[in-house]
Amino acid sequence: MTVSRTASMRTASMRTGGTRIQHQQQRLGDQCRSRTGGVRTPQASSPRFGSSKRGNMVSCGAAKVAVLGAAGGIGQPLSMLVKMLPSVTELSLYDIQGTPGVAADLSHCNTACKVKGYVGDEELAACLEGCDLVIIPAGVPRKPGMTRDDLFNINAGIVKGLAEKCAEICPNAILNIISNPVNSTVPICNEVYKAAGVTGASRRILGVTTLDIVRSNTFLAEECGVDVDEVDVPVIGGHAGITILPLLSQMRPKVSLDPNRIEELTVRIQNAGTEVVEAKAGAGSATLSMAYAAARFAESCLRGLQGDKVYECAYLESNLVDGVGYFASKVQLGPNGCEEIFEVGEVTEFEQAGIDALVPELQKSIAKGEEFAKK
Ligand SMILES: NC(=O)c1ccc[n+]([C@@H]2O[C@H](COP(=O)([O-])OP(=O)(O)OC[C@H]3O[C@@H](n4cnc5c(N)ncnc54)[C@H](O)[C@@H]3O)[C@@H](O)[C@H]2O)c1
Ligand SMILES: O=C(O)C[C@H](O)C(=O)O
Predict the structure, then answer these.
(1) Phi and psi of 64, rounded to 5°?
(2) Among 146, 166, 179, which residue has the most ligand 1 atoms within 8 Å of its CB, making it the best to mutate?
(3) Residues pairing with 342 in the sheet
């Protein structure tokens, strides 16, 4: 499987970077190397794609954000973290149950953001009116023994219905799709927007893979005994099993790892969601770490809307890799959502084998989502 390039994609060796909050400058200066070995002059920034941190929040204007599925395991802590973002002035919480209570509870927190709860189909349009960013964690989570694809039958319909309303009411808002299987739900949303005649939406429909990066950074910091704040591991492909591909060769800081450990760590990152599902023993999947990751990604999107160049990884429509129309990639966020998709960059033989293996998996999930949306 070869990696192709288009005009809108930049070649970069991805000594990865990412967002540092408080307007800290992007890391400068590393030379960037194309996959074919050509050396580029240093970029204005050498981005870090996976090291954005929560906690040092900055104000990014006055944004309205909606969380759909806000009364759930992810929705509640995520809504709280979003309410703490200084840039968010309005927070709309939507669910099929429970949002009046969650909204009443959150509204007592003394941050400037106004919170309002909406319940049921008839209130969805009002919830979405004027939104800049819509975050979707609505849907059922896994139980032990299930794959993410086992959630398709229930979650595909939920996401499709919500996307139809977003396309109608706030077509220019950025969507952050959390509901699994992300490899299929993002194509579903794109098809819904195409059918609704919304143009250019694919750069605003972003599958949230941030938890894979958060996990990779955590595990690699533990493994290497380095400050977790300094660790930055880009993760590409998709968000299920072997489609989750951490590029440990592109990790920053540069470390030397035994090939066997690279394999073991890759497998652990790919199975980290299952690790949590099994530990929760039937009570759901990752919620707190996901809320943390989603809040970070939401904040990056809001900073992008305000005009900052922000670097993350996300799953979105692209022709970056031959044979698949969607791929989790290193991206630059900006006022229009994803402004730039970066090439995979230099990879090891092990990583290239991982790309080759994940492509057929992704193809199946994408086709399943697209077919469902067109029914
Ligand atoms: N992308 C990721 O990295 C990632 C990580 C963790 C979980 N997830 C996924 O996120 C989803 C939610 O997980 P959770 O643990 O919060 O589940 P949960 O069951 O605790 O919460 C889901 C919420 O969605 C609501 N809901 C159901 N149908 C709805 C609809 N039509 N409109 C609005 N809300 C609706 C439910 O009432 C519930 O409150 C799952 O699909 C899970 O697999 C994704
Ligand atoms: O594993 C799951 O089902 C939830 C989520 O995708 C995760 O990675 O934690």
Answers:
(1) -105, 125
(2) 179
(3) 10
Q: Phi/psi class of residue 165: alpha, beta or left (left: φ > 0; alpha: ψ in -120 to 50)?
A: alpha
Minimal CA–CA distance to 245: which of 345, 149, 355?
A: 355
- List the binding residues for NAD(+): 69-75, 95, 155, 178-180, 290
Q: Name the closest-CA residue to atom 27, ligand 1.
A: 139
Residues 156, 329: contact at Cβ < 8 Å? Answer: no
The reported pTM is: 0.90
Task: Render pLDDT for 236-291 as a digit per residue (tens, 0 to 9).
Answer: 999 999 999 999 999 999 999 999 999 999 999 999 999 999 999 999 999 999 99
Q: What kind and span of H or E run contains 354?
A: helix 349-374
Is residue 124 helix, strand or coil?
Answer: helix
105's tokens: 């509870």
DSSP annotation string for 291-350: HHHHHHHHHHHHHHHTT--EEEEEEEE--SBTT-SEEEEEEEEETTEEEEEE---S--HH
